[in-house]
Amino acid sequence: MASNGEKGLIVSFGEMLIDFVPTESGVSLAEAPGFLKAPGGAPANVAIAVSRLGGRSAFVGKLGDDEFGHMLAGILRKNGVADQGINFDTGARTALAFVTLRADGDREFMFYRNPSADMLLRPDELNLDLIRSAKVFHYGSISLIVEPCRSAHLKAMEVAKEAGALLSYDPNLREPLWPSKEEAKTQIMSIWDKAEIIKVSDVELEFLTGSNKIDDETAMSLWHPNLKLLLVTLGEKGCRYYAKTFRGSVDPFHVNAVDTTGAGDSFVGALLNKIADDQSILEDEERLRKVLRFANACGAITTTKKGAIPALPSEAEVDSFLEGK
């Protein structure tokens, strides 16, 4: 890890869990003949994506004090992610999700969290020194669903911001986890104006705005004065970007997608890794477009293999992929 010791630290906050992925695509959970266990959870995926691209990252969250929890902590360590922010809960299990892979590689989820360890992280368990050392503090919205994790999330954001970190938000909507659509929208938007970088998917854009138009006007309805960059990812159609003084779109890379899990996290990790030490990129359209092209490539490569973490690319893999384009 010494080689990237000088780089700015990206701290990722939230959930890590185990996805059980069917051995056969295009079948329902009931019809699946068997399942493979795949470590996941968007914030953890982002932390590993950063590390794999040569950046410095840490994960803050809570796992069950069980075999799965210790397995996940080991996966973070093995991938070079700092683990000083991980807590273990003796009374609750590590979260599980059963994922259906449709024939087009897209997913549906069934969650086991009642409650899972990640939901029980308390504000007094946070490693504040680690959070204060972040150049970028990244989070989602799943940690806002229930207390005490919600309070821990708000406290961590506040501490990171006070210490001068750039706040990055990917709502990562998982509707089945929320009590209602209204509650999901209210809570996701409750911290909206704090983030300086926000990434939403086209599906999340529709959900949050109530509009079925994926256009600049709809996207800009989510703009707020503290924002430096708003990104809308469009799956196989690339992404759109909105900054203070410019906006545009970056073309996709066409690949044979087998599993879209982790593609958005790979995209986010790539972006954060490139801007952690040079935020001036956010004000320079030409350089930002290069970074987003690189991030699009990371996302595309991630869809070509099953499972999120095994599919996250290294810098060398992305470079050789781009050379071939």
From TrEMBL:
GO cellular component, one term: cytosol
Enzyme class: transferase
GO BP terms in the entry: fructose metabolic process
PROSITE patterns: PFKB_KINASES_1 (PS00583), PFKB_KINASES_2 (PS00584)
Record's keyword annotation contains ATP-binding: yes
Ranges where the Carbohydrate kinase PfkB domain occurs: 9-313
Protein's job: May play an important role in maintaining the flux of carbon towards starch formation.
Protein name: fructokinase
